[in-house]
Write a structure and sequence with these properties.
Layout (H helix, E strand, L loop, with lengths): L7 E6 L5 H10 L4 E2 L6 E4 L4 E6 L4 H6 L5 E5 H7 L7 E5 L5 E7 L15 E4 L2 H10 L5 E4 L15 E6 L3 H5 L3 E9 L1 E5 L9 H17 L3 E8 L3 H7 L7 E5 L2 E11 L5 H9 L3 E7 L5
Parallel strand pairs: 1-4, 1-5, 8-9, 8-10
Antiparallel strand pairs: 2-3, 3-4, 5-12, 6-12, 7-10, 7-11, 13-15, 13-16, 14-15
The structure holds adenosine-5'-triphosphate and magnesium ion.
The site of magnesium ion (MG) has 3 residues, from loops.
Pfam family, one: HisG
GO molecular function: ATP phosphoribosyltransferase activity
EC number: 2.4.2.17
């Protein structure tokens, strides 16, 4: 596949666990996505950008080869695709698609650390990551590559253990498997091609990356406003989660209290509000942040 002159391309998963959130990221960055007649390619109406919608396994190669300028993919898929050739660069973690590649065993296997895997058969969809992990632990085992349904391999006597993606652990539990080792922690990442775009598109590319980083930074961030007794100001600002230096303003006609405004980078829970109140804070407002730059 070759590139269309004068347009940037962003690779996203067509359908699956990352598809919707990837599209949200693109939209939140201000790109108006038009469903095209073609299912593979969505056009962006307000910029010369196309979205290439593909299997997630294809995204690292498309971005590494410069067929796409940017991509959204699970770090696990990127890591598995690492082959010594030119690589896509990770620009930022995106905060969604979180999961962990874990080694899990059936109760019949007496597990006492990685050495218990010596000479065993392990089923996985991530043979390269698993191979590197086993080597780093000095264990030699047989790796059986399966595209899916890895979790049934022990029951079918296809393997003694598995190495698979886990998020809640419900699938492991349903199959009577016990998580033993964390092999790789993953989430969706934004990746960029090592190949520069056409010079006239460089500025657009930089600005899209900056906007996406703003979208990610504002996720979960809140704007908090409250009134605080001057005497409790230090204790109250210390309670605000992930806030830099807050803005402190006078309240008209009151010397004993001030208004505090802060951007909190972390979730603001009810427990925090209760503690703020206990320190004498009043008129507490927690507002969502739409954009941040
Ligand atoms: P495709 O058809 O695009 O190849 P897929 O079946 O390979 O899709 P999905 O199951 O949609 O992939 O998962 C995509 C990504 O979502 C995974 O590579 C991983 O990064 C992430 N993910 C998050 N939680 C989980 C989970 N519990 N199991 C599997 N993947 C997860
Ligand atoms: Mg896939």
């Amino acid at each position: 596949m070759s590139k269309v002159q004068g347009r940037l391309r962003i690779a996203v998963q067509k359908s699956g666990r990352l598809a919707e959130r990837s599209l949200d990221l693109v939209r939140d960055a201000g790109l108006r996505v038009m469903k095209g007649a073609n299912d593979l390619l969505y056009r962006v109406e307000n910029y010369p950008i196309d979205l290439l919608r593909v299997r997630d396994d294809d995204i690292p190669t498309f971005v590494a080869d410069g067929v796409c300028d940017l991509g959204v993919v699970g770090e696990n898929v990127l890591e598995e695709a690492r082959n010594g050739g030119p690589q896509a660069e990770i620009l930022m973690p995106l905060g969604f698609g979180k999961c962990t590649l874990k080694v899990a065993t059936p109760p019949s296997l007496d597990y006492a650390g990685p050495a218990s895997l010596e000479d065993r058969r392990i089923a996985t969809s991530y043979p390269r990551i698993l191979k590197r992990w086993l080597e780093s632990r000095g264990v030699s085992a047989d790796i059986v590559t399966m595209r899916g349904a890895v979790e049934v391999a022990p029951r079918l006597k296809l393997a003694h253990a598995i190495c698979d993606l886990v998020s809640t652990g419900a699938t492991l539990e349903a199959n009577g498997l016990i998580a033993q080792e964390t092999v790789f922690d993953s989430q969706a990442v934004l990746i960029r091609s090592p190949q520069a775009p056409e010079p006239e598109l460089q500025h657009l590319l930089d600005s899209i990356i900056e906007r996406m980083s703003g979208v990610v930074a504002s996720q979960g961030a809140k704007y908090v406003m409250l009134n605080a007794p001057r005497a409790a100001l230090d204790r109250i600002t210390a309670l605000l989660p992930g806030a830099g230096s807050p803005t402190v303003m006078p309240l008209s006609g009151r010397d004993d209290a001030v208004a505090v405004h802060a951007v909190c980078q972390e979730a603001v829970f009810w427990e925090t509000l209760e503690k703020l109140k206990a320190e004498g804070a009043s008129a507490i407002l927690v507002l969502p942040i739409e954009k941040m730059m």
